[in-house]
Write a structure and sequence with these properties.
It is built from 16 helices and 22 strands. It is of the alpha+beta class. The longest helix has about 35 residues, at about 450-484.
């Protein structure tokens, strides 16, 4: 009898889990249940008026190998493209002007000293206080700390307000007063423990690697790639790699129940009935996973239910290049809260990657909302489009009307790794040891990027394969003993 594995959730994590299971053991009966009308979760590529629009992630980092390895495994290696080699990092809004992020400044710390000292973003006192970071003692008590507390303690409030907050806000759309540095940026905690200073740690890492620091500041754009034709190409390839009939759309699971050594999944629609499986991977958002697992383990359900999410809107706008007064010498810009504007950031999609916009035009994505400006999302689409257009027109000296505009709302899409998140994950992992044939996947626990989601799905698949192998070995031993 074929072993059945049920996967709940058809985002990239669930699809990656299904692909891994079938790749490792083609004899398995893998069934994926997606509550919505399509797979892919927040990842969705749209073509409109000649423009290629991404509704969520438009690339992935290659320093975490899962994304690029999966693309190669699916036969997409020839479709991988890197960022425009002529690009120059990102800008930050500073006193109403767009200024380049200091060369070598990587999210929370500099790997080069002179660019930080010469930038116009920081005041003389802000530069001095940042440089004094090398004399700040390491924290002796190993307790979780908010990202804001950590950065202000080491570098001072000005560097946090002017550089770190907007950069981290662009990644997590989060409130840095609540964001856990241990859960989001553990690398910098390790630098503090090992070197006593982030500046010394960054310089030591640069020296040990023998590499020159990135010329641009902000994200390490040289480490990012995307797919020619958009990120949905990855989703489509994953879907096509699965057996026909194994993906069920508009199939919302209401609850999960233990039935001896097996599992019963009850559909939200009672008329549909239930599904039995030997193993289950839950790759749904934390809130949905919590409600489904209430009857399995109340402690796991409670911890999952405590993970908060933020929402944002992604507004895509296209303009004629000759109607934009700004030179656009970067891949985009981030906006600090202290600048008192109504957008989080703006990415120049067609400047980053080829094939995004027709010749002579520019495609950009404007991000609105997040944990600190969530109230803006109560505005109707028309007003959000106008808000985004007004902001970029002012900051980029745009004189013309948009050639194209498109809005995507990402509602409760970004999990917030608040202080205490790592302890929460450890508790969940400990409780899961009681259920070897149950696994969790997705971005709610250990990583918000595409490679992190892929990795979580693949790890969940490996966990289930080990559980099935252990069950098969136990059954074989029992059969041998019965014969004896």
């Amino acid at each position: 009898m074929r072993r059945r594995v049920a996967i709940i959730g058809g985002g990239v994590s669930g699809l990656a889990a299904a692909h891994q299971l079938i790749k490792q053991d083609p004899s398995l009966d893998v069934q994926l249940y997606e509550a919505g009308p399509r797979v892919g979760g927040v990842i969705q590529t749209v073509r409109k008026d000649g423009f290629l629009i991404e509704g969520a992630a438009d690339n992935f980092i290659t320093s975490i190998p899962g994304g690029i390895e999966l693309c190669e495994d699916l036969g997409l290696a020839d479709d991988l493209i890197g960022t425009n080699p002529d690009g120059r990092g990102a800008d930050v809004l500073s006193n109403g002007r767009l200024e380049p992020i200091p060369s070598g400044f990587m999210v929370m710390a500099p790997s080069r000293i002179w660019p930080l000292l010469s930038t116009r973003i920081l005041s003389p006192w802000g530069k001095l206080r940042s440089g004094l970071e090398v004399f700040v003692p390491r924290k002796k008590v190993a307790e979780d700390e908010s990202l804001k507390s950590f950065v202000c303690r080491r570098f001072g409030k000005e560097l946090f307000d002017r550089l770190v907050q907007p950069l981290v806000g662009g990644i997590y759309t989060a409130d840095p007063n609540r964001l856990s540095v241990a859960a989001t940026m553990p690398r910098f905690l390790e630098m503090e423990r090992e070197h006593g200073s982030l500046i010394r740690g960054m310089l030591a890492g640069r020296k040990a690697s023998g590499k020159r620091a990135e010329k641009a500041g902000g994200a390490r754009y040289s480490q990012f790639m995307t797919l020619r034709g958009g990120m949905s190409k990855l989703i489509n390839a994953l879907h096509d790699s699965l057996p026909e009939g194994s993906v069920h759309l508009n199939a919302a699971i209401g609850s999960i129940h233990r039935r001896g050594q097996r599992w019963r999944l009850r559909m939200k629609d009672p008329s549909v009935g239930s599904v039995d499986a030997d193993a289950v991977i839950v790759a749904a958002p934390a809130g949905h996973a919590s409600s489904m697992l209430t009857h399995v383990d109340a402690a796991i359900a409670e911890d999952l239910g405590g993970i908060e999410y933020a929402s944002c809107a992604v507004v895509s706008l296209a303009f004629r290049r000759d109607e934009i007064g700004h030179p656009l010498g970067s891949f985009g810009f981030v906006v600090p809260q202290i600048e008192d504007h109504l957008i989080l950031s703006c990415s120049f999609s067609s400047e980053k990657y080829e094939g995004r916009a027709p010749e002579g035009t520019v495609l950009m994505r404007v991000f609105i909302g997040g944990a600190c400006q969530g109230g803006l999302l109560r505005l109707p689409d028309k007003e959000l489009l106008e808000l985004a257009r007004w902001e970029v027109a002012k900051l980029l000296d745009v004189s013309g009307e948009p050639l194209m505009q498109h809005i995507t709302r990402q509602t409760h899409a970004m999990p917030q790794y608040h202080v205490g998140h790592r302890a929460r994950v450890e508790r969940i992992d400990e409780r899961l040891q009681n259920y070897p044939s149950l696994a969790l996947a997705g971005n709610a626990l250990n990583g918000v990027g595409v490679p992190g989601c892929i990795d979580s799905g693949q790890k969940a698949a490996r966990r289930i394969l080990e559980a099935i192998d252990a069950t098969d070995d136990s059954k074989s031993l029992s059969d041998e003993l019965s014969v004896c």
